[in-house]
Structures are given as C-alpha cells and as structure tokens.
Amino acid sequence: MTRKVNIGGVIIGGGRPVAIQSMTNTDTADVEASVAQIAALQEAGCEIVRLSAYDIKSARAFRAIKDQTSIPLVADVHFDYKIAIAAMEAGADKVRINPGNIGSEDKVRQVVAAAKMHHVPLRVGANSGSIGKAYWDRPKHEALVESALENVRMLEKEHFQDIVISLKSSSVPETIRACRRLHEICEYPQHLGVTEAGIRETSVIKSSMGIGALLVDGIGDTIRVSITGDPVEEVRVAKDILRYSGVRPFGPEVVSCPTCARTRIDIEAMARRVGEMVKTIDVPLKIAVMGCAVNGPGEARDADIGIAGGNGEGLLFIKGAPYKKVKESELFSAFQELLEKILAEWA
User: Fold this and answer.
1) Where does [4Fe-4S] cluster bind (predicted)?
2) Burial bucket for residue 138 (CB in 10 Å: 0-12, 13-18, 19+)
C-alpha cells in the first residue's frame, strides 16, 4: 500500500479512492478564464487541477485563482526554482517539479524548505522526453524508473518524503512496464497517465489501455487522461476508466449486446436512448439492453434492471428474472417506469 499524501484536503494513497486530475489549457495569468475552466472541470467531476506556472506572474496568479475556487490546485513548474517557491507562497496545494532541472543542490534545498513550510507535496515526474543521459542505453521503462528515483533521492536527501511520482510515456507498453516496476520497489503514491495520447478518439484507446491495465493491477492513486482539446473531456473519460476498471462507481453502467440474426428491435437506438436517460443519475446501477428474450436475461443476470427485445414485444427483467412483458411500442415507457421504481427503492 502506498503512503498517504494530502493535496489540499484530498488524501491520496493508503487505499484511498483514486482521484481524478486534469489540467487547464487557459493562460494561468488570465485569472478569469482559468477560474471559469476550473469550475467546468469541477462540475464534470475533476478533483485536482493542475495549472502551468511558467513565470513569476503566472505563479502569483494562484492566489487570486485559489480565492475563487474550492478544488486543490497543482503548479506545473519547470527549470526555475523561484517559480516553484512563488507558487507555494501563492497557495498552490502541490507542485510538479523535476529536481534535476531545477539547478544546484542549494536551489532544490530552497524548494524543499518552502514545501515543508507551506505543507505542499511535490510530484516528481519522468517521461520519455526527460530521461537522464545516464540511462539512455537502458530499456525505456527501466530508464523512466531510474530517472524518477534519482530525482526522488535528491528530495529524500533533504529529509522530504511528501512525494508523488509519475512515470509517463506516449507508448502504452512502456508506461505500463515502468509503473509496474515502480510499484514493486517504491511506496510513494503514483499519478498515472499516458502522455501525449492525442485527440479524444486516440486518447480514449491509449489511456484506457494504459491507465486501465494499471488500475486493474491495483496500481495508481491519481489519474489524468491526456487529451488534445477540451480538458473537460479528460474528466469524462477518466470517470469511465475508473468505472469500467471496477475501481470507482460513477452512476449507471449501460451494457448492450452486439446484436445478431435473432434481433428484431433497434438495440443501438434503444441503448443510446437509455444511456441519455440515465446519464445524470448518480446511483451505480447496471442496466442491460439485450437483443432477444432467449439469451438476454441470462447474459445480463448481474444487471440490476434490463430490457430484452423480441418480435414486436419486449421483456423487462430484474437481476435476470422476468418482470413484465410489454408491446414494443410501450417498451421504453415501461422501462422508464420500472427504473423510477428501482431508484425509489435506492433512495
């Protein structure tokens, strides 16, 4: 089990729920735009937000942003130790740094002193573009681990252990191998992600494979789905990955069969309609939309509620047991009525 780390009131590690993180793509110095995007991310279900602190002005903007938000804020800092310190002084709840590119030991020591003073954890990251030259001849996943641990040791030398580690590659296999190896030898919590995963369509596949495989292994304490585009989409995909990995429930799960020659109703349309109807429900129901009354109930026995289509009619069922047979024209309304009944029982 990993160590516990407190990020602005959100506890990660130590068996706590895996937290969802995203990153703004607004100019951090533009407080109004950043606050608006953070609000949208939070509404979507984001629990930790990272912002780029690229100069002193953007670092100091954390104070104004923090005054108008209620979610932990992480400062993403590269190269300049003064920016890291300024962000902590302005209220950043965590700082993402690479001690190896901050500079001298004295500069690292000043960053650690500020982190101790302000009770701010530090996230140490390594990705395929920041591997130390000493490890270039090693397999990529080993190089990622060793590069990160080299930086961790710089912090430990200053008796600082409030650390989160992130190993990312644009390669799914490299990311998985690196994170598994780190998990074997290290107790620091891990932030997961597949970096540079591309636009939404590409990222959904790469992130689900990489992050999902690790979550199923019991690895990971925070996740970020990297998407080129609207960061709100990162949160939506992250929730799905957590849901389908069995790690955290986020509302109903709708399962549907791929259809076959026995299908006599439009299952795709029915599944989409059901999905739209339940997308704002918080109850973690499992809902099945199946193509026939022969195999439907059996195939979806573990569903809380479901529909099985027939020839001009349909069957509603609960936990795989038949509940009511109705005409096809009445199927959706009957399902809606049954769903309301089930939700009333959950209330």
Assistant:
1) 257, 260, 292, 299
2) middle
CA distance 277 to 24: 30
As a whole number, mean pLDDT of residues 124-142 equals 80
- Residue 260 assigned ligand-binding role: yes
Average pLDDT over residues 232-254: 93
pTM above 0.85, yes or no: yes
User: Is 299 labelled a binding residue?
Assistant: yes
Alpha-carbon span 105 to 103, nearest angstrom: 7
Query: Taken in order 149, 188, 237, 216, is the CA torsion positive or negative?
Result: positive
Q: In terms of DSSP bridges, do strands 5-7 and 10-12 run parallel, antiparallel, or are they unpaired?
A: antiparallel
Q: Which two tokens stand for residue 274?
A: 């059901």
Burial class (CB in 10 A: 0-12, 13-18, 19+), 104: exposed
Q: What is the set of domains in the chain, with CATH numbers?
A: 5-244 (3.20.20.20), 253-346 (3.30.413.10)
d(CA 178, CA 145): 6
**In this structure, which amino acid lies at residue 307?**
I
CA gap 116, 138 in Å, rounded: 34
DSSP single-letter state for residue 194: -
Structure tokens at 76: 């993403």
Q: How far apart are CA 241 and CA 252, in angstroms?
A: 14
pLDDT category at 265 given cuts 50, 70, 90 is confident
Q: How far is CA 137 from CA 125, 217, 302, in A?
A: 20, 28, 50
Does 257 belong to an annotated binding site?
Answer: yes
